[in-house]
Amino acid sequence: LPIRGHPSPDTDASIDPPPYDAQPGPIDLQLHHIVSRDALVVKIQPPKVPPKPISHVACDVVLVIDISGSMCSSAPVPGEGEDTGLSVLDLTKHAAFTIIESMDERDRLGIVTFESESRIIQALEPMTDGNKEQARKRIRALKPMGSTNLWHGMLDGIKLFKNEEDSARVPAVMVLTDGEPNHMCPAQGYIPKMRSMDPLPATIHTFGFGYSLRSGLLKSIAEFSGGNYAFIPDAGMIGTVFVHALANLQATFATKASLKLRYPSSLEIEQMLGDSVDKQAAVSAGNGQMQLTIPLGNIQYGQSRDLWLRLEGITHEKQISDYAIEATLTFEEADKSITTLSSARLGDSTTGTAAALSADEAVYHESRALVCNFISSLFLLGSDGEYRAFTESAKIAEKRLELAQLIATLPSRHLTDGLNKSLMEDLSGDLPRGQISLAISTPEFFVKWGRHFLPSYVNALTRQICNSFKDSAPLQFGSQSPLFTACRDRLDNAFDSIPAPPPSRAVLRHNGGRQARSLTAAPSSMARYRNASGVCFAGSTLVELASGRITEMRKLKRGSRVRTPLGPRKVHLVLKTKVSSETLYRVGSLLVTPWHPLSMDGKSWDFPANMFDAPVLYTGFIYSILLQPDGRPDAHAIRVGGVAWGVTLGHGITRGMDTRAHEFFGDY
User: Fold this and answer.
1) Taking every annotated instance into account, which residue ranges of this chain make up the domain VWFA (predicted)?
2) Most exposed of 12, 207, 214, 419 (fewest Cβ within 10 Å)?
3) Angle at 390 (CA atoms; ends 384, 396), nearest 5 degrees
């Protein structure tokens, strides 16, 4: 192997790796013994920027796109109210156009689709202007049909890299699906089958859209290949997730990174980030030595990789200098096709000591490991290599108590630096933060979206990558990488500015008493589909007055007396808004926007998008109600459709875990 910065192999010095502080190689590899915590921190610091200015690192990207029938489903943006008739596949096409826009002739793109069968639409081709237009035409022509044959889609994606010369580009397969694979799955399971194959020529990055996912499988596939899994809960997140995924690829310093630790067998070193598909046990290296291998995958410019490891077996009679712990990192620089090696040694008293790790940083890495370990404990890794979430209410309740204890004792809890603060915000911050607590706050939340979101979050936290604009802790990663931020900003602008795709879904329009179905015009901007975060009723919705009579929402006016959970209240204001192609949920006469909190019993609240499965597209007027002032939140709800209580504006709940909480709509 070419060994950068090492003496030539014919010298005695080549027998033992030099200590990190004498290592002039491209990566700064450090070992830190945290005595008070019985821990070892391995810090891998790549260069901040490439040696020469570049717009991005060249990539080979194969898009593997699910075009099964469910991909024609509507893709409304939560909280925006408006649905422009776009489907999930429409937005996937737009994300693909964004990827194409960001590429140049140094990059190559391949396209594979899968439904009941898999089909190679385009081999890896350089993204010249002419080839870009051909790729766009092929993507525009995609139509949803059939079942979900994920396995053969993946195989064809991998196949495009076969018989390819090592191109010195970053290779990646990007798989997007909105459902569970249900056709031609390998009998022994995906991971066992993948283990029996030749080494993968590219990392596989999986993207799960919506809630009908086998997310444990998607995470396992990504983990096995050294890629990333990302959850896209709704249309508002599709842009930001794809933008960050490609920006990470375009900011890659090294691929195929792997760390080997060699240490005396009297010591025990254990990874602390929870279980993983690619986790390996330590093995004997002979001569009283053990060896632990930790696959790391890609490393980005300007973003360190930091491992918090439990270290046991050091006796009081001996110092750490009596135990030689050696670390060797192998990797391929993204623009080269040779393997490079970096080394460090802890316990070599002749070479000085490492620059001290700051106390706050040490606390952060310990806390990050504890959070990752907790999230991982919510999922069992089966013998088939697939993660499966706990779904029993009692188990989820037990985990809520564990989380409360973790939050109360986490080393980060009193620190105010950006890293430690971001971790606490994601654990227990006020909404829209605190997503970890929210994900297991009820069995219903966990089963619906928490079990899909948490594996995506822990992937970002473990691999130290920024995967969206949404969560505080992942947003810290890449912030010190000028190349990553430049790539992200360029992709961000491209997603917003590329002309919106023509909508493929028919829209239900209301004009007076008539209904008509038609295709809407494309939205003027795609920025709404790149959000990291409207509450109204249709005018025909029936509402109960204080007298017990029923009237339509559109007939309410200032001074009307309506029924609330706490008795009669007067209407103070009616807000009437004209909308086009609004997604509403229907239950009887009740037509309500997806994110308008409802309660069936006056006690527990939820969003219509979580409660009902009958969305319609609506054009007409929608209405919001403000009742007379009252300091009690329950005095701000009206009886609608004869089936539910609907929250009204100014209810007083502006923060916290209550579904009704909203900083603006809750402020009277």
Assistant:
1) 60-246
2) 12
3) 160
